[in-house]
Write a structure and sequence with these properties.
The complex is a heterodimer of chains A (124) and B (114). Chain A is mainly alpha-helical. Chain A has two domains: 32 residues, no CATH class; 62 residues, no CATH class. Chain A contains four helices and no strands. The N and C termini of chain A lie far apart (59 Å). The relative contact order of chain A is 0.13. Chain B is mainly α and 114 residues long. Chain B has one domain: Up-down Bundle (3 helical TM bundles of succinate and fumarate reductases). Chain B is elongated, with a radius of gyration of 18 Å. The model of chain B has no long low-confidence stretch (mean pLDDT 91). The chains are: A mainly alpha (124), B mainly alpha (114). Chains A and B meet through helix 1, helix 2 and helix 3 of A and helix 1, helix 2, helix 3 and helix 4 of B.
Chain lengths: 124, 114
């Protein structure tokens, strides 16, 4: 019998593609949770007075802020697509291995696609 | 004895998560179109976007749905990864305060424009 407890080397575990979609669903969810108060703060500043509006506009024009915004857009897109996949699985659509794998790949591609489009319009 | 943090409300929160997910998917898409088609704007144009009452009501409802959705999601994550009960309850409290505070601040912000 193997020695207990067993410590798994996380770097050597091969996570299936559905596993990546799942863990990224959680990571993106945490990012979006943190973005909520930040977004309200930004909205509050931009609406309060002309100077606040200009400060927020300057802030969003900064490349680092745009990179962060891009991360949030990716998080929102991935979370949305992975969530829609979840809803489909809830009603037993695409639960067999083949379709579950294909839909996982589709979610990853769709999230990346939105991020690419957003990156293009933010940086080009 | 019931444990301090297990409340047998799994089905209810599961359904709440799905209902708010659908609402957010539709409402956020609509709001994204509303704001993106109006860009770019100056300060007065930006404020004018928030003038319609229906928009402020919709954004507040979205904020509430987002808070409920985020609460269930963060709770699930903490249930999976944070095992000491005291620490988990402290994190729950931090999430609730953050979300409730954000919704209240959002309401104050939206109605300061009117």
């Amino acid at each position: 019998m193997a020695q207990r407890p067993v410590y798994l080397n996380l770097l050597r575990i091969h996570l299936p593609v559905a596993g990546w979609v799942s863990i990224l669903h959680r990571v993106s969810g945490i990012l979006l949770f943190l973005a909520f108060p930040l977004g309200v703060w930004g909205l509050s500043h931009s609406l309060s007075e002309e100077a606040g509006f200009r400060r927020m506009a300057d802030c969003v024009a900064h490349p680092l802020a745009r990179l962060f915004l891009l991360l949030l857009i990716w998080a929102l897109a991935h979370h949305l697509f992975a969530g829609l996949r979840h809803l489909a699985l809830d009603v037993h659509w695409g639960v067999n291995l083949r379709w579950a794998r294909l839909s996982s790949i589709a979610v990853l591609l769709a999230g990346s696609g939105v991020a690419l489009l957003a990156g293009w319009s933010l940086f080009a | 004895m019931r444990s301090a943090t297990g409340s047998h409300t799994g089905t209810g929160t599961w359904l709440l998560q799905r209902a708010t997910a659908l609402m957010l998917a539709f409402a956020l898409s609509g709001l994204a179109i509303y704001f993106l088609t109006a860009m770019p704007l100056d300060f007065n144009g930006w404020r004018a976007l928030f003038a319609p009452l229906w928009l402020r009501v919709l954004m507040l409802l979205v904020g509430v749905a987002l808070a409920l959705h985020a609460w269930v999601g963060m709770r699930d994550i903490f249930m999976d990864y944070v095992h000491p009960t005291g620490l988990r309850l402290a994190l729950y409290l931090a999430v609730i305060v953050t979300l409730a505070g954000s919704v209240a601040w959002l309401a104050a912000t939206l109605w300061s424009v009117a």
